[in-house]
Amino acid sequence: MQLLPHCNCTTEEMGSFFADSKSLAPIDGYMFYHKEGIYVADTTPLVCWLKPYMVPEILRLPVPADLMKSKPVGYTTLSAHVAALDEKRPKKPERRWRKKVQDAAARTDDSNLEDSSMDSQNL
Fold first, then answer.
1. What is the pLDDT of residues 57-113, one digit of tens each?
2. How many Å apart are CA 21 and CA 14, to the nearest integer?
3. pTM over 0.85
């Protein structure tokens, strides 16, 4: 078994890593993560996946031209790309428990507003 290539997240190390990535097997992207983080199977801000053509835009580091060939036709920016994907993706039905939590939070907010208006009247 062979470990995947990796580097520390410094400008120097990442720059040389991307420059040397010509010798790597074909890749789908690069994963960035906090090495001291504890991860669970869910969405987390501690992990990021960038396609090779996204690296210059997001990290301002050059990547070899052959890796830029995977850039989709019409790609402009990451935010525009994600928005277009979100529009195509079918909407997930809202989870019941999430709706219950939102309803409970709204009731709590309403009661806090009533309490604060009573407090101001008693002043």
1. 988 888 888 888 888 888 899 889 888 888 888 877 666 666 666 676 777 655 444
2. 10
3. no
Give every CB contact of residue 39 below 8 A, 6+ residues apart in sequence: 33, 46, 47
The whole-angstrom separation of Cα 111 and Cα 73 is: 52
Q: Whose structure tokens read 């890796």?
A: 67
In the chain the first and final C-alpha atoms are separated, in Å, by 73
Name the nearest CA neighbour of 17 among 26, 8, 25, 29.
8
Q: What is the pLDDT of residue 22?
A: 64
Sign of the CA dihedral with 73 first, then 79, 80, and 83 last: positive
Residue 17: partners with Cβ closer than 8 Å, 6 or more residues away: 5, 7
